[in-house]
Amino acid sequence: MSEYLIAREELEFLLWDWLDLAEDCGDAIDRESADAILDLSARLAASAFLPHYKTADRIEPYQNESGVLALPEIGAALREYAALGLFSASFPPELRGLGLPSLLANASFAQFLAANVSTAAYVMLTTANARLLAAFGNPAQIEQFALPQIEGRWFGTMCLSEPQAGSNLGDVATRAVADGEDALGERYRLTGNKMWISGGDHDLSENIVHLVLAKVAAPGAPPAEGTRGLSLFVVPKILPSGERNDVAVAGLNHKMGYRGTTNCLLNLGEGEGAIGWIVGPPGQGLPQMFKMMNEARIGVALGAAALGYRGYRHALVYARERTQGRPFGAGGGPSQAIIGHPDVRDMLLAAKCYAEGALALVLYCAKLVDRAEEDVEAEALLGLLTPIAKTWASEYGLAANDIAIQVHGGYGYTRDFDVEQLWRDNRLNTIHEGTTGIQALDLVGRKLRDGAALALLRGRIAQTAIAAAALPTLAGHALVLDAWWQRIADAVETLRDAGPGGMAANATALLRAFGHGVVGWQWLDRALLSVDAPEDAFRSGKLWACRYFFERELPKIDAWLRPIAAGSDIGAAVPAEFL
Amino acid sequence: MSEYLIAREELEFLLWDWLDLAEDCGDAIDRESADAILDLSARLAASAFLPHYKTADRIEPYQNESGVLALPEIGAALREYAALGLFSASFPPELRGLGLPSLLANASFAQFLAANVSTAAYVMLTTANARLLAAFGNPAQIEQFALPQIEGRWFGTMCLSEPQAGSNLGDVATRAVADGEDALGERYRLTGNKMWISGGDHDLSENIVHLVLAKVAAPGAPPAEGTRGLSLFVVPKILPSGERNDVAVAGLNHKMGYRGTTNCLLNLGEGEGAIGWIVGPPGQGLPQMFKMMNEARIGVALGAAALGYRGYRHALVYARERTQGRPFGAGGGPSQAIIGHPDVRDMLLAAKCYAEGALALVLYCAKLVDRAEEDVEAEALLGLLTPIAKTWASEYGLAANDIAIQVHGGYGYTRDFDVEQLWRDNRLNTIHEGTTGIQALDLVGRKLRDGAALALLRGRIAQTAIAAAALPTLAGHALVLDAWWQRIADAVETLRDAGPGGMAANATALLRAFGHGVVGWQWLDRALLSVDAPEDAFRSGKLWACRYFFERELPKIDAWLRPIAAGSDIGAAVPAEFL
């Protein structure tokens, strides 16, 4: 178990004390079993995922005539992961899964993301694919394509983007032409180019299952415009017959991070068309994807939080070991550990707020996933908080990684240390699975369109504030939090009346203010659990982090909200030729 | 000339309209000659520096038994640069220099930094070295070591840091033992390890001139503690006799950016001791270095600004070309260039404020360098603004590079585009030549210790505000600027009385507030030049950028100052064991 991964104490605090994992587990899993899962995850992450973190960055995937080849250590780690049944962690027993609640499965998975985000990404893609098939596929498709993924023998991909269709999936041009029916359902021939396909090809698993967004079209006819015709197809690399499907790797994308995760441009149908079976009814591709989108975005957020958290731990260890300089104002004396410098401690507090705050926010969402099935309030809150978690964790996880470099000084930007790679890896997370701008439009244009979800959220915030108001050390924070939320709610109202330009020009600012407001609330909520333990270093740390967030982070909200209150729409108003 | 380098219109606006380059040039250089220098710089940067930008990142320097080998294109570009006499640009004619004012020389050099920061870094190191020798060396040393650098035949280094002595040079342990005297002055034998030596070894120039900070010591005796004994020595790689000096490369640092600039751990004196000649009197090493520090820091700031500027240009070109999505709220229609999205324009405005604001701030300082010789006010302002320029340009240049990635979406994090490399390159700049934390202590502990320099600055700000107050479109900004500066000045007063802990815990926050205040002032100052040109796209762009900075950037100051006003010292107060 590595000191750089997620502290066991942190996970126990979040899962049991803060998020009441017992409720999610019900009778199915007791504390001892949950602890065993966490132990196992920490050990395997440290022994099989962490050791090739830098190697996978240095030795990138490459392509030869047989396809794309990845670092063998990645395959070895994932085989160990599969052998322990962890691909199946969050699937129900009827799908041969361990049946872990989402909260526990995410806590387990966070260790692997912290240890090696690009190796763990294959798991994320595979389980997302299998879950989509399990939700919408027919029994034969589930048997044929989902189960081998749940066992971790086959890996999966999501083929949405195309070179000309990234954020806007309505422009997808991949065509699917009907080609009869067989035991797996209605068969189609697919033709098109899919870009940014993570895990799009590699030699790590026996087969690769692509889930492809395409438009049903009559032979020779153009596909429908917009998103209406979009349907989902399951397109395996190797067909059940054992033959290769008509899916070719047209190129590899070389990224600055996540380098161990192959990323491909795939050509479907260079010959007679790639064979695929439609998943669910035609025209349902987008709603099907959206049903999975919350989870995919929370997965990205979890990776971003885990990267940020690991950066914070590296910085902390380094700051305790590295000696440099004397106390400011002292004439001489021995050189001190740099954690003695207030500026360094200030940076570490910020990184702690970001990293632990992001991890907590994402696990809070994972808890909502567990509740959402039977609790419409949880479902609404999950929808509201998903763009927040995606954005906040990726922006502030990255900020924690940036601080980790700064704390290391010159050593931080060398490849002798891990912190520069953590920073590069994390830079992808504000972009993939929907950029920050897309998250902001989702928040403002969809999740806040009616006030119901916000009212629920404010109800939960009020509960925290009321509890904090009764405690002398936290009562001030409760007042401050309430004041900020009043202003955030005012801004939501203002934007609702602002028209498309004003809304689009301010959505990101509102998202950022909202994110800080949510994380501030959650810091206060965790501080409530810590006030009674002044001698406990871990709990005291939570109180200090909460104080830091209220003193130095929440005031940033003003800069995001002030232009909204003033009716600024400068991004919409500025003529493009003046840029 | 590349569309990604610094626009000629930008430089002309800053140099002639805003900073009155004519004053710096005096009778020595007319506008035509200055224009010719700028033309030449833009052409050479595009033809010789830009083409190997990515190659030098991919093919790193390596070491064999002959020493460190760098990419040949770097040497070829620098030979062209030398052939045009540009190494000598800012040196006076008596040192065989072109005698350009610092302002013009920096504007010229900015193009090379924008085109290829790691190739240009050799120039920066070499001219800084030669300038130090010219200031403090004896005539024989200048003849022997400075002139070949001014000609660009030999390159130079600055050997300050050691593995255990980075920010704190008092811990330097390299020893210099007297070894007689010769025509070059008092000769010493040096023994020690020097870390982070940019350009420390390579095969790009005929010789390498190291300027080494070391402590004079009697044979066998320990060197003095602290900074008192520090002296400066000139230590060539190849001695005037043609023999190799006792300077060995112990290792190369592999960095995430500036990869074309070799960066070495040097061992001095593995044998009998490296031969070096003392520069100036003993014990003057630190004051000598500090005399050059303003310039070195402005050099780093210029590189950071140039990188940010180039990132902005890349984003702008991409946003005009890439089509994706429809206007928010529109049902359909053709896909639009992404610059049509208000969120993208908002990002571009921010990047414009950062990149152009940083470049302007650094050139403002270069102007102060020109004035400082004869104008004590300029000298005081230069001292005050140097930590601001270093920090603001490196933090917000990086922010501009971050935005450039975001505007490119997924393409931004691939190595097919330049923006990810610009971001990696720029990440070094908040660390080398003094971290942000060091700049903050310099500002608070030294530059603001008496109020004289701040009073001068506020006088200049008041001039701008008075002029703006007379114009209906800018009068509001004038009031806002004045209000923020009142608060910044209050925070300076508060910190002066805060004691070492409170001061150290808040110095960085004050530095950031101060930086935004300075850049806001300068945006308003440039807006004054633009109000009369509503049809001019370039000038209108300045007005929009100024408005953006006042609407969306200046409010951030509050979050930095509020904790200071509240007496927060959380970075000093938090016990290290709670982190």
What does this structure look like?
The structure is a homodimer of 579-residue chains. Chain A is α+β, with helices and mostly antiparallel strands. Chain A has 3 domains: 8-283, Beta Barrel (Butyryl-CoA Dehydrogenase, subunit A, domain 2), CATH 2.40.110; 284-434, Butyryl-CoA Dehydrogenase, subunit A, domain 3 (Up-down Bundle), CATH 1.20.140; 437-574, no CATH class. The first copy, chain A, is 55% helix and 11% strand. Chain A is built from 19 helices and 10 strands. In chain A, strands 4-5-10-7-6 form a 5-stranded mixed beta barrel. A two-stranded antiparallel sheet of chain A has the order 1-2. In chain A, a hairpin with a 2-residue loop joins strand 4 (175-182) and strand 5. In chain A, helix 7 (117-136) runs antiparallel to helix 9 (285-321) and helix 10 (342-372) crosses helix 16 (499-528). The model of chain A has no long low-confidence stretch (mean pLDDT 96). At the A-B interface, helix 10, helix 11, helix 12, helix 13 and helix 16 of A face helix 10, helix 11, helix 12, helix 13 and helix 16 of B.
